[in-house]
Amino acid sequence: MSTQHEQTSSSKKILFRILDGIEWLGNKLPSPLLLFALLALMVILASALFSGVSVTNPTSDEVIKVQNLFSVDGLQYIFQNAVDNFIGFAPLGAVLVTMLGIGLAEQTGLVQAALKGTVFSFPAKLLTAALVFAGAMSSIAVNAGYIVLPPLGAALFLGLGRHPLAGLTAAFAGVSGGFGANLFLTSTDAILAELTSEAAATIDPAYAETIAVSMNWFFAAVSIILVTAVGTWVTTKIVEPRLGAYEGEIAEEELATLSAQEKKGMRFAGIGFLITAVVMAYLSAGPLRGDGKYLESPFFDSLVFVIFILFFIPGLIYGITTKVIRNDKDLTQFLGKTMASMSGYIALAFTAGQFIAYFRETNMGTVLAVRGAEFLNNTGFDGFGLILVFIFITMGINFFIGSSSAKWVILAPVFVPIMMNLGYSPEFTTVIYRLSDSVTNIITPLLLYFPMIIAFAQRYDKSIGIGTLISMMIPYSVAFLISWVILLFVWMLLGIPVGPGAEIYY
């Protein structure tokens, strides 16, 4: 990547040099596949070293100990669960199923045709903001945004003659860094509200019953504006200038206007997409509505398959219309090419899956989270000082436990009562947690989708490693943190409720 920086080397700012240093250091690490294998080995050794260290779970009062994987039982677990750890690696199935649909649309030429149409009709100045905004809003579809938007952002930027990695990082920043922002309520709101209510009930059961799913809606809705503005600024002012011009092989492709056949294919594919979307809407309100809450319905549990269908059917129609697909053998060949392109990610998923499973099995993440909460309780801080300590502890814990709800299960029973005793409402405490959790999502390799983002980036630069991706995402992380903390304190000074009926002070 250093050759791409030559045009700006004479006037590099200190920030660029720091990021270059981080990239250089990070890329000295082994390949992601080998790195996760080494991390898995380190977890095994660390579990032996800290075996027996224990904490008390604040939720259940259960004593949790670090489990030794370097023991007879531990070695049996490692060998007996290697295949299950691979298959159970959460993003693996979702990514492969989704990519079957997206891959067919790409192989038949539908994606390229759609990008041509976008390039010649979409206001180029609004693309970055639209991409970050769509990324943040994608949390309504849980984790689907991780799979769809980063590669789409890269392709759109490339089509406009901009560096594809800038488009990928802008989308990733919106999806992951903006996970705590949305104009609508999501399943995450429902999960966190339930956990917050349980924690608040230990202090005030009557108050806990008033905590609603919409408890953070106002703050989350305003945060969408902040995330979009800050993400756009970082992309155009820091990330793109640092990347420079893209000189990869894909840049040699010319983006011609749509041919008559492509337009016909797009027209029929568009009709197919609309019909499919109508059918999906009917299913979401009917057979897949379920008996529970809408955000917990079978439809939302099936979003990966829904996305597959929404891409697969238009891609198939486009291929048949343009005569790219003439028989079932052509279809099989296209799907095979798609899976072949994901072979590197599949190999990476094996070692990443072992590492994630080992870390979970040893309980080390839980122990670290509880110890961090105990540290916060013993600091003696109050007011702004306590809030800042809370933010940084949550950010640190995010490097060890990737799941937002899993962390809140552990932290809510500690943080919520502490903040209530200091006069802050449980709803406001949850807001602090959500912004703290979001800003480090994009720089922690423990994020389940981090290896996948690297795999997407390597399509455009095969030399990219963990250091490169982290160095590109750090400016977003820092900018989101600073701007969100400023917004939080201004919100406090103005005394605005963080949601309907959810005041700042308890």
Task: Please describe what this structure looks like.
- One of its GO terms (molecular function) is secondary active p-aminobenzoyl-glutamate transmembrane transporter activity.
- This is Aminobenzoyl-glutamate transporter.
- Keywords: Membrane, Transmembrane, Transmembrane helix.
- The chain is about 70% helix and about 0% strand.
- The chain has helices at about 15-25, 30-50, 70-80, 80-85, 90-105, 110-120, 125-135, 145-160, 165-175, 185-200, 205-210, 215-245, 260-285, 300, 305-320, 330-340, 345-360, 365-380, 385-395, 405-420, 425-440, 450-455, 465-495, and strands spanning about 55, 65.
- It has 23 helices and two strands.
- It has a two-stranded antiparallel sheet with strand order 1-2.
- α12 runs antiparallel to α23 (about 465-495).
- By secondary structure, the chain is mostly helical.
- Residues about 250-255 have low confidence and may be disordered.
- The protein is globular, with a radius of gyration of 24 Å.
- The termini are far apart.
